[in-house]
Write a structure and sequence with these properties.
The protein has 364 residues and is α+β, with helices and mostly antiparallel strands. It is 38% helix and 26% strand. It is built from 11 helices and 15 strands. The strands form 3 sheets. Strands 1, 2, 3, 4, 5, 6, 7, 8 and 15 form a 9-stranded mixed sheet that branches. Strand 4 and strand 5 form a beta hairpin. The radius of gyration is 23 Å and the shape is elongated.
Length: 364
């Protein structure tokens, strides 16, 4: 679209306020051609995920949080209040970028599901980031109406490419840019052997992990089993969720209200796709603990876990996590990601903080 036509269109939208991104969901938003790229905006989730899945295979830093099944399920399970604005950038038939956004009543466009999804970096093919963001800015500039206030990207990792591209592109396109560290996702940088990992810990913690593992394995015949069959998943998942709910407090309430429906809806499918791992720890033949992990290129991401408080004499939570770390090291993983939250146990295991950012763009 030539610049003059775009400016006229912007002024009309500003005056009328109803034909931009704040329009009713029933009024379609036409695809916009910008150079050799096309930006589309849907108000409903796509039903065909083939292109989205193909995009995932091209991006090396993707996580389960970026998968279609997870993203779509969080919209329902997270009880998100707002209207979907699902941006896609294509070059001919090739999908280059996906940017799910939610439009709230306060005039904010933001990443949906931030309370459930730990990482929400925008999904863009490497090498195409600058072109895709320029196309998105051009699209937003035309459709930014008077009801819109800001665009906010939540849970952006430190190494995300958008942190490199957005400051200068925002300035060039009439937007302000700011970023702020809002949370941390501690992670353990794994050595090559289990003994080296233990040696890296505080002497007291090292002694306690050895003692608890030895007791569980020699006296309790502790076994950490991966659940893969439909029957195992159906039997174990509800019990693990129940353990997490039994933690009580804010965690228990969040599990009951949001996480349980999400996991019940997605776990089986994500396990089949290789995007979720459910582990059960058995001690003396009884289920003592359960772990929910997401695999990644660098190693496991521990999303959540629970344990049976009636078996606390065996320290089932500590044992399950320690065994999972040991397995990850044996498999050649370089990172054991403990995701968001600064609980003490993470630092006792030698985790280091990794910041998560909130990026905010406002129209000048």
């Amino acid at each position: 679209m030539p610049n003059v036509i775009r400016k006229i269109h912007e002024m009309l939208i500003h005056l009328r306020g109803a034909e931009g991104l704040s329009r009713k969901d029933t009024i379609p938003i036409a695809p916009m051609a910008i150079g050799n790229l096309t930006v589309t905006c849907r108000t409903t989730w796509p039903t065909d995920y083939a292109a989205w899945e193909a995009l995932l295979r091209q991006v090396p830093v993707i996580t389960t949080f970026h998968a279609p099944a997870w993203q779509i399920a969080t919209w329902t399970a997270g009880r998100i209040r707002g209207r979907l604005r699902f941006l896609q950038v294509h070059r001919a038939e090739s999908l280059l970028a996906v940017l799910p956004l939610c439009l709230n009543d306060a005039g904010g466009l933001h990443s949906p599901g931030a309370s459930i999804s730990d990482y929400l970096d925008p999904l863009i093919v490497p090498g195409a980031e600058a072109d895709c963001w320029q196309a998105v800015f051009s699209f937003l500039s035309v459709l930014w109406d008077r009801k819109l206030v800001e665009l906010t990207l939540h849970n952006v990792r430190e190494e995300a490419s958008c942190r490199r591209h957005l400051p200068s592109l925002s300035e060039a396109n009439g937007f302000s840019f700011s970023e702020k560290i809002v949370e941390y996702a501690p992670a353990i940088l794994l050595p090559t052997t289990w003994e080296m990992f233990l040696d890296s810990l505080d002497p007291h913690e090292r002694k306690e992990i050895r003692r608890k593992l030895n007791k569980a394995e020699t006296k309790g015949d502790a076994r950490l089993m991966r659940c893969e069959s439909e029957s195992d998943i159906a039997a174990i998942l509800p019990r693990v969720i129940g353990m997490m709910e039994a933690a009580g407090g804010e965690k228990g309430l969040a599990v009951e209200q949001y996480l349980a429906p999400l996991l019940i809806a997605t776990a089986s499918g994500l396990i089949r796709e290789g995007r979720l791992e459910l582990y059960a720890l058995y001690i003396q033949g009884e289920l003592a603990s359960g772990l929910i992990q997401f695999p990644s290129a660098s190693g496991p991401m521990l999303y959540n876990f629970g344990y049976d408080s009636a078996m606390k004499e065996w320290s089932p939570g500590v044992v399950a996590v320690a065994m999972s770390i040991r397995n990850a090291i044996s498999a050649g993983a370089t990172v054991f990601d403990l995701l968001r939250g600064r609980e003490d146990y993470k630092y006792k295991l030698g985790a280091v903080d990794r910041p998560l950012y909130r990026l905010t763009l406002k129209r000048r």
